[in-house]
From TrEMBL:
Heat-inducible transcription repressor HrcA C-terminal domain: residues covered: 116-336
Keyword field: Repressor, Stress response, Transcription, Transcription regulation
Function field: Negative regulator of class I heat shock genes (grpE-dnaK-dnaJ and groELS operons). Prevents heat-shock induction of these operons.
Name assigned to this protein: Heat-inducible transcription repressor HrcA
Organism for this UniProt entry: Roseovarius azorensis
Family stated for the protein in its record: Belongs to the HrcA family.
Keyword Hydrolase tagged: no
GO molecular function, one term: DNA binding
Gene Ontology process terms (BP): negative regulation of DNA-templated transcription
Alphabetical list of InterPro entries matching this protein: GAF-like_dom_sf (IPR029016), HrcA (IPR002571), HrcA_C (IPR021153), WH-like_DNA-bd_sf (IPR036388), WH_DNA-bd_sf (IPR036390), WHTH_transcript_rep_HrcA_IDD (IPR023120)
Family annotation (Pfam families): HrcA
Amino acid sequence: MNDAAKLLDQLNDRSREVFRRVVESYLANGDPVGSRTLTRDFSEKVSAATIRNVMQDLEYMGLLGSPHISAGRVPTQEGLRMFVDGLLEVGDLEATDRLAIDATLASNSQDVAGALDRIGAALSGVTRGASLVLAPKHEAPIRHIEFVSLGHDRALVVLVFSDGHVENRIFTPPPGHTPSSMREAANFLNSLVEGKTLSDVQRVIVREIAERRQQIDKLARDMVESGLAVWSGEGDTTERLIVRGRANLLDSHAEEEDLERIRILFDDLERKRDIAEFLELAEEGEGVRIFIGSENKLFSLSGSSLVVSPYMNADRKIIGAVGVIGPTRLNYGRIVPIVNYTAQLVGKLISDRS
């Protein structure tokens, strides 16, 4: 049982209802909730003093806080976590939201990148947050690998995939490389790669190099290892992340501290590589995941929330993720089914157009 579930078990029915109403009201309008407001529409006849005592108990437990001197309360990060884990009621996907997302696939174009961009724009539009789409790496089987010398300190590795896709990546080869060592390295790789994807090849090569250390020339081995580092290096993730709808996080009602929070968030969004690495954590398990405030180290300073879901290809392999970033005051019950549906749609798109 996690900490949120333990806290929830400590609440009686009245405390649970007070807590739920405070959180739902806060998520709906962003304002602190006072005891008199709750008394008017509480399910049983209780006094404002009774409600006030319950709210004080919830504050003592760390579930509610007072942002100002006023009597109103708002949920803390721990309170939001407990609400999301134990009390959140996830609604059905609204028809208008489904239509807005489905409309992005009206084109019969095979341009997957363009389709993902349109989906990201639609997702940010319907959620009024910033959308993130982590596009899949190219995972077609490799047909051929070649090394090309560009000078004493620069070389090119050329990857030809079975679907005709070609990737060229520049890297620094080992000192003293020769045309013969480059040919030997390419021959070694091509004897292993046929019918395998890039991630398959990386695992095989590491094992094969260890087993054939005496058989393959040291320069050729160093060439393979240098090129292998390029395949899994930093340049991979930056281009694969699509961020849309940052302007949705600004509105005319934003207070000064909210604007500072959003400015920090924008700085975070510029570090696309960091976000891509974080979203890859979502690939560790199925289903929608919610990261609130400092639970999400990347956005901890801006106090934002991330609702994210991985998506799969036709082989049920997780190949990317989609998500929505916004303030912790998100309508989680509405956004969770939107993100879930979008992830399924992207998975189907990738499978159909592969």
